[in-house]
Every structure is written in C-alpha cells, then in structure tokens.
Specification:
By secondary structure, this protein is an alpha+beta fold. The chain is built from five helices and 17 strands.
Amino acid sequence: MQRQRLNIALAIVLVALGAGIFFSQKKEEKKPPLTTLTPETINTVLIEHPDAPAIKLEKQSDGGWKLTQPVQAIADKFEISGILNLATLEQKKTIAPAAVKLADLGLDPPEYTVTLNTLKLAIGGMEPIQFQRYIRNGDVIALTDDPPSAALDKDYADLVSKSLLPENADIQKIEVPGLTVEKSADGKWTLAPPDAKASADQIQKFVDGWKNARSLWNALDTSGGKAAKGELVTITLKDGVMKLLVVAREPQLQIDRPDIGVKFNLSKALSDEILKLPPTPSPPTPPPATPEQK
C-alpha cells in the first residue's frame, strides 16, 4: 500500500512538471509593432528635446550612419541599432488619446520626440507598475518596453562612434608628443626624429593601435566653449586632418576632439600603445647548457 501511494505521488509530480513545462513553453501571441517601419527602411532620424539642439542622423550610401546635427561625425553602429529598433517595439497595450489626460502620461508636452523618416513619435512618461513607456503614434498611445535611454537622450556624445579614427582610415601621418610616424611615397613607414630607431613591426603595431583604438564611453565637452588644454595629437588621413588633445592619462586615458565637442574615455593601457612605440622585444633566452657543452 505504501509503495502504491508513493507511485501515485510520483505520477502526480510528473504530471505537474509536464504541465509546467508545457505552459512555460507556450508563448503569448505577439502584439503589433509600434510602427509599420522596419530598421532597413529608415533613412533619417531626428531627436528633439526641449531646450536642446536637435540631433539628426542620416543613413549613408554604404549603409553606415552619420551624425549631421548638431555636429558632423560618424555614428556609433550599436547606438543607431537601438534607435532603429524603436520602430518595431511591441505594443503591449494601446490607449485612445481621448480616453486619458495626456499630461498624466507625460505626453502634454512629451518628454521628447523622435522622427523616423517622416513619422513623428512622442515619447512620454513611464508606467510605474511594469516600467513600460507611453509613446504616442498619431491617434494611438502605446505602452512599450522602455527605449534605449542613452541613445535617445539630449547628449549626442553617445551617438558618436567609439572608434577614434574612421573605419578603414588611410593614415598618412601620426604626430604624438615626441614622436612622428609618416608613410613615404613607397608605402613604407618612416620615423622622426631622425635618430629614433624602431623595427618595421614596432611601427606597424603603433599604427594599428590607432586604427583599433576605441573609447569605453564618450562624454560631452562641458567646458562652456573654453579652449581645451592638453597634448596635441595630429592624425593626417588621405582625406583630411584630425586634431586631438590628450587631456588626461589617469585614471583613464582621455582624448578630446574639440571640433565636435566630445571626449573619448579609453583604457589607461592604451597610453602605451598609441602615445609611444612598443618596446623592443627582448632577445630569446638561450637554453641552459648541457653537461657535454660545459
């Protein structure tokens, strides 16, 4: 009898586990997206915050994106992806504007607006229970997952590419404090001052360091228009010249681009890769002599 009861109890447990697995795997029916646009069909983005310059992004012929207002700069691919996905956010719930007081939802006025191509979305406040965002699209107010705040806030620095140099930049000359590396007509790298010595491999690692350098995060210059102070770095590319300033080496390496008002915060370790040549490799240690060699 005891064994029979045990078998019945085990059967009940197995049935409950099976039901739990079945219902956990059963997905809720997906609700309509916020807009009929897809990321691939979006060519322009306009972000407008009250009392702040408008931020405009434009898709380029190669598929990349560029920040065109309030400054001209290559845009960060990851941040742009987050903005484009705004178009396809799932509408968790919809509300008719006439049924609510818009001010109560942070939509009169909206916190900010985002225009995808010609479609203008008004971004409102946060719903306090499930932390979903009120977004108005024409005659519909939708509750959606919260869009990426860093990409859509008024600080355009987040939207600037984290790479210090453009992708596939054709570097002609790099001038850092105390060191200049320049490409000659035959494509080889030369070093200045003339008495400086380095192998071709060392110089190439230095150049590659600049090609691959990326910031951990970007920050807006808050100097209020005052000229930044730091060590000048000049990068000559085939299609232009970039002027940078090394404004700090501790606790992170900080490099300023005064032309766009953005500070790049990089790993401190990069100071040894992009501000000086790599050290000369030590010669290999010979193996210990055998008794016969002694």
